[in-house]
Design a protein that fits this description.
Length: 552
């Protein structure tokens, strides 16, 4: 019997893929209508996305097969949706992010900020959150978390080393991190007979209590990195994929929207939201894992201890190992800043942008999009050399000259570009177009008209709660792809502005904090150890476990 259940579990994905379409088949057979056909496709894809019986990107390709066969859309129309302007913006933005990551510019920024904020517990947590959130605005949340978590653990190792574990003898360094700077000098007292004696360390807390406090602080630092990665991604249009899903859905469902969702308008809305969420997350994690002793958390009136000095040296040493900025880093920084400036000034809305002035259409509006700008900067990165051009010889072939490689190479882009997400985006846009063409969106909107009796704020709150719960178990891209067309139809039916519902629900889809499987950043910090699922579901801190860990 056990073997029977084991076999079913081993082949569960095959069974789901075979059985689900058959179980749902009576729906389109009994009700031969385009709306039902489209609903069948959406339900089937939603179940495949939820169970991950097929890879997410493969499931996203189903509209190419199902929509033409069910006479919802022609194959040519469906395929065109998969490569629209939003996908171009996604590709261009990621190419620039790959260049930033490839030349370690993100690590230099991170370490420089940590050197500024210092290693006091509350400030250290704030520093890691600020750096992670800023980097997540421009590069992927996963890459940011994967870079920041090892740095955080290296710093914590030094903070948590007990005095007897440290090499404080004269002339000895800590070999673990190979610090090149001279170690901090020990405090000494001079006796009456002229002899010098080290100052004895202060009273230590019991080892079990110190271990518990250090564990709590480590958990807080891990969570602050993954949470701030998710929060930071909402600030820019290219920061996380659900933002681009919203832009694409708005353009698909409301083609005459005058480009209301662009980089500048999204930043004006989402950046203040990100700052508020980041501040609340920092205060919440500080209370949970450091306690209410804010004077101690901020190091007010305290002495800098050996562990804090060593932790600061770890950050300083890693920054020193990067060396001075290379030519490639300078070029990437310049192009990155130029890209952001071009995005902000293309069509800002409150004054005429360069897109309106230089490339207007017959209505005076910009025919150049944010995707155009991103691809333009990306192409430049394939042209500009990574070193100052000069006559250098190929070390493998003496006597032959060798040109320096470009800032970006296709090999690097091909290895790091998440092509599956591009297909996932396209599948979402195809679902939105199919719902519109089949009349399913209008039908759903009519069925949801009773909601107009509720206050608009209550409707938004309930929907955000629903989306936030759903995204804990499903990809945030799949969640927004499924929900946004339905929300748009519902908003129109009850006479609400669609963005009043779609914007907060898009943000809610990115804020998956409760489970390790909810987002890749959560999974990364969970894999480093020291965390349980209950820590992510966080309960109130029991008495005695909420105080700041003593680095001793």
């Amino acid at each position: 019997m056990a073997t029977y259940w084991q076999a079913l579990w081993a082949y569960r994905f095959y069974l789901v893929v075979l059985i689900l379409p058959i179980l749902l088949l009576p729906l389109p057979i009994l009700i031969p209508d385009k709306k039902v056909y489209c609903g069948y496709s959406i339900i089937l894809m939603a179940l495949f996305w939820s169970t991950e019986a097929l890879p997410l990107a493969v499931t996203a390709l189903l509209p190419i097969v199902l929509f033409p066969m069910m006479d919802i859309m022609t194959a040519s129309k469906v395929c065109l949706v998969y490569f629209n302007d939003t996908n171009i913006l996604f590709i261009g933005g990621l190419m620039v992010a790959i260049a930033v990551e490839h030349w370690n510019l993100h690590k230099r920024i991170a370490l420089q900020v940590l050197l500024i904020v210092g290693v006091r517990p509350a400030l250290l947590m704030l520093g890691f959150m600020l750096v992670t959130a800023f980097l997540s605005m421009w590069i992927s949340n996963t890459a940011t978390t994967a870079m920041m978590v090892p740095i955080a653990h290296a710093v914590l190792q030094q903070l948590h080393r007990s005095p007897k574990d440290q090499d404080l003898e004269e002339g000895r360094d800590n070999p673990t991190f190979q610090l090149q700077e001279a170690g901090p000098q020990k405090e000494v007292t001079r006796l009456d007979n002229g002899q010098v004696q080290p100052v004895p360390p202060g009273p230590l807390k019991p080892k079990s209590q110190r271990d518990q406090e250090q564990l709590r602080f480590s958990q807080g630092m891990s969570l602050c990195v993954c949470y701030s990665a998710s929060i930071g991604g909402i600030a820019t249009l290219t920061g996380t994929t659900p933002n681009l899903v919203l832009q694409g859905q708005v353009n698909e469902l409301f083609p005459k929207n005058d480009n209301v969702v662009n980089f500048a308008s999204w930043f004006a809305f989402a950046f203040p939201t990100m700052i508020i969420l980041l501040l609340f997350a920092w205060l919440w994690l500080q209370v949970l894992f450091l306690g209410f002793n804010f004077r101690k958390n901020f190091g007010i009136g305290g002495q800098v201890q050996e562990q804090e000095k060593a932790a600061f040296q770890v950050i300083k040493q890693q920054h020193k190992q990067l060396g001075p900025m290379t030519f490639a880093e300078i070029i990437v920084t310049f192009l990155f800043v130029l890209l952001v400036l071009l995005w902000f000034t293309r069509e800002p809305g409150f004054f005429l942008g360069w897109g309106d002035l230089a490339f207007p259409d017959h209505k005076g509006e910009s025919i150049v999009s944010d995707g155009t700008v991103a691809i333009f900067i990306s192409i430049i990165m394939f042209i500009v050399p990574s070193k100052i051009p000069g006559l250098t010889q190929d070390p493998g072939k003496p006597g032959k000259l060798k040109a320096p490689p470009a800032i970006l190479s296709w090999k690097t882009v091909n290895e790091k570009m998440p092509w599956n997400v591009m297909l996932l985006l396209g599948g979402g846009f195809a679902l939105a177009r199919g719902s519109e063409e089949s009349g399913l969106s209008a039908w759903l909107g009519q069925k949801l008209t009773p909601l107009q009796d509720l206050p608009a704020s209550a409707i938004t709150f309930i929907l955000c709660l629903l989306v936030a719960t759903f995204t804990e178990c499903t990809s945030n891209v799949a969640t927004t792809t499924l929900f946004l067309p339905i929300l748009a139809s519902m908003a129109q039916a009850i006479c609400l502005h669609p963005l009043y519902v779609m914007l907060p629900c898009t943000l809610a889809a990115s804020l998956a904090f409760m489970l390790p499987v909810a987002t890749p950043p959560n999974a990364i910090v969970f894999s480093f150890g020291g965390l349980k699922v209950t820590d992510m579901l966080e309960k109130p801190v029991p008495p005695g476990q909420g105080r700041q860990p003593d680095p001793c």
